Amino acid sequence: MRALCFTVDLDRDSNIQMPERIQAGSLDRGAGTAPRFSSSEYGLEILSKLLDEMGVKATFFAEGRTLETIRNAGCLSGHEVGVHGYDHEDFTLIEDEEERVEILSRSIAAVKDVTGQDPCCFRAPFMNTDEELKAILPGLGIRYDSSDYADVGRTMIPKTENGLYRIPVPKGIDRNGKKILAYLWPMHESKREPRDYLELSSCVEEGIFVIATHSWHIVESRSAGLMSSERIEQNVENVRKVIESVIDSGFSPLTIPDAVSRAG
User: Fold this and answer.
1) Nearest Cα residue to 27 out of 224, 237, 254, 210
2) Is the pLDDT of residue 42 over 80?
3) Considering only CA atoms, which of 234, 209, 235 is closest in space to residue 59?
4) What is the pLDDT of residue 71?
5) Is the pTM of this model over 0.90?
6) 228-249 pLDDT tens trace
7) Which end of the chain is more exposed for a tag (fewer CB within 10 A), N or C?
């Protein structure tokens, strides 16, 4: 079994860590670092349309406040929706377990209220996590965690510990000897090509290959701001190429729960 899990972080635009705060802000585009959501909303519309056209069911990791702010959460219908914090918090800065549980519970409630789904998947904001956080998740109904990176290998079978399946984002070394993650942000910033991700996936002969991106990054470059319509079209075409090429190489597109179920 070779499964492609296409995953999307649905969170505030160009999120950034803020000094002495656990909540994230947005990159200053001239109006301060208060959270923005318009690019995430627009990117969700474009990306969900592409996925629906391709018949690909994705796993979205949704930030609670983003879900409650955007007007097109209906685009998530048919896809798996998991949890990504409430205010894109860096949980490693929170020492109190009760505070962690409170934030996670609020995040879960937001997903339930907006989408009607009982979320069972989690990805930590900034991919910042620890074992204490993971130990909390099963008690809140979370069974699948994708908050880590792991070296890509021939076999990528998810591991389970204390009731929590761990489905990492792969990392490896490309043909030029440079580090590559299965996050698409370098491609969105014109620093990588679709074939780079196909080559990374080719290392996996069995198991789950996770690709990750952000909805806002479909329409907004971190380095250059809002994209032109031409640049957005090229960005969407690149995402299409990545997904199609990986599927054509023998991977089945599945949500994380479905992929884990088939992996046994």
Assistant:
1) 224
2) yes
3) 209
4) 97
5) yes
6) 999 999 999 999 999 999 999 9
7) C
Q: Cα(39)–Cα(220) distance, rounded to whole angstroms?
A: 6
* Token pair of 260 as six digits: 């884990």
φ, ψ of residue 41 to 5 degrees: the values are: -65, -50
Report which of 195, 193, 207 is spatially closest to residue 252, judged by C-alpha positions: 207
- Buried b or exposed e, range 241-259, using 16+ CB within 10 angstroms: bbbebbbeeebebbbbbbb
Domain span at residue 221?
2-263
The Cα-based distances of 92 to 100, 127, 132, 139, 160 in angstroms read 10, 10, 9, 19, 22
Please state, in angstroms and rounded to a whole number, the distance separating the CA atoms of residues 211 and 174.
Answer: 16
Q: Residue 157 belongs to a domain with what CATH number?
A: 3.20.20.370
The domain tally of the chain equals 1
